Amino acid sequence: MKLSGLSLAALVLPPGIRREFALKNRESVLTEDQERLLYETSLKFIAKNEIEAQKVARNIDYSDGAGTEHPSLMCGPLAIAILSESGLLTIGADVSDFWLPDPIGDDKNQFKQTFPERLYEWVNEKESIGEIDFSQKPLFPGDLLFLKAGNKGSFGHVLVVTRVDDEGKAFSVNNFKTPDGFIIDEVMLYDPKNPGEGKFYEWTNERESKLGLTGFDGFYLWRPKDNITFLPAERYDTIYPKLTEEIDSLLDQSNGKWRVLIQDISGRTIYAKRPDKILHPASVIKIPIALDCLHLMEGKGLNLEETLLTGTKGRTFDQLLKAMVVDSEEEATEILRSYLQQQPDHSIEQTLQNWKVWHTTTAPRRSTASDTTLLLRGLYQGRLLGNEAKYKLLSYMQEYTSPDDTRVGILKSRLPLGYKIYNKRGTITSEMLVVADAAIVEMPGNVLTMTFYGFWGKEGTTYESLVSTIETVSLKVYEHFQNNGNIKERISRLK
After folding, report:
1. 8-state DSSP, 47
2. What global pTM score does this model have?
């Protein structure tokens, strides 16, 4: 979530805080420019009183639109927001997934997916933060820490090291309690030359218990490794603010919760709504299963058409793939998934990881709008499959069934002859409500990927309202591009 914050020119740095960046701490894998961007980005989140801190918390929107954000509980989302806006996450993450995180309990997989061990060092420091010799165990810019409260502590706490100065002092912009309430500010964590000075020592000083204590059992640390490649900052910034505002309003009116990503085929964002939130993708999960199946067949170097006529469990692979993608048959899906998982030295999840699709798993079914979009774009561009396999899967996704006129399929009646929609819908109406559609839409002058995941939200959310919203937004996007195209054509004719 982009914050307007204060301009850097308006910030008055406290005495003693330097703008120079350490060059001697080369254990850090960040470049000097990356360190500077991290620092400057972190300053935008500073809020010197609780009222302003509440505004920052609401802007980060870590409770998924519920309006219950408060600066006392925002440490995880704040740290993720700082890293994300600095472009210093290798894998997309949604701030709400790091609200009140438990790195060794229910949220352990979230940390594994966002900070995988092949890209990040995982450190379990068991010594109290008030006793560690940081001259021997320094922290570096970009380090993410979860402070363990311990028996004497009153809270766990997440923070990111946002700056280390040329004297080795480590700083963080984070939320903390003061006698006047919760604020967000830059604080010195420690000074390696002066043990006992810094926030780490305040948080382990029992005389400060009224303001909260933490760190007695040390911390968990996630640190980027040398081989890391970060994502560019602001991946989902859109260049269509008016269209974004209109879509936001339509989604709000539905009362549902939404994870949406609409891009052109080059990856330029048209609209984004929490695209990195991990979710249940319903039957859209059948796309990665089909991709992996065809990818495996290609890897064997055999004739694809002949291989599709072989099969398992009494049906050909062609029959199974068609039943899974076109008819959304669950039995065919499980037959194919089980077959793939039984192949020697093969894993669907490993294939997805190789394609840099980080958050998608088939058991349990999990994905993100971002992952789904990457697969759609990679399929259409021919980066995931060879031409024969690519067109085979696209033919399944294009094949008409009666529900294809709904959701993104509402555009079928608008598209000129020769333009197509390739999509996979998903629906769950028992125990939970999921209405999804993942589509590649060919239109004059553009090819778009449109990924919608709608869920139960406020009272009044219905299956029908979610379906209708997908259709309304799809039409809004189509009309936007066609109207702009018509304007360009008229200008061209005038010339």
Report:
1. B
2. 0.84
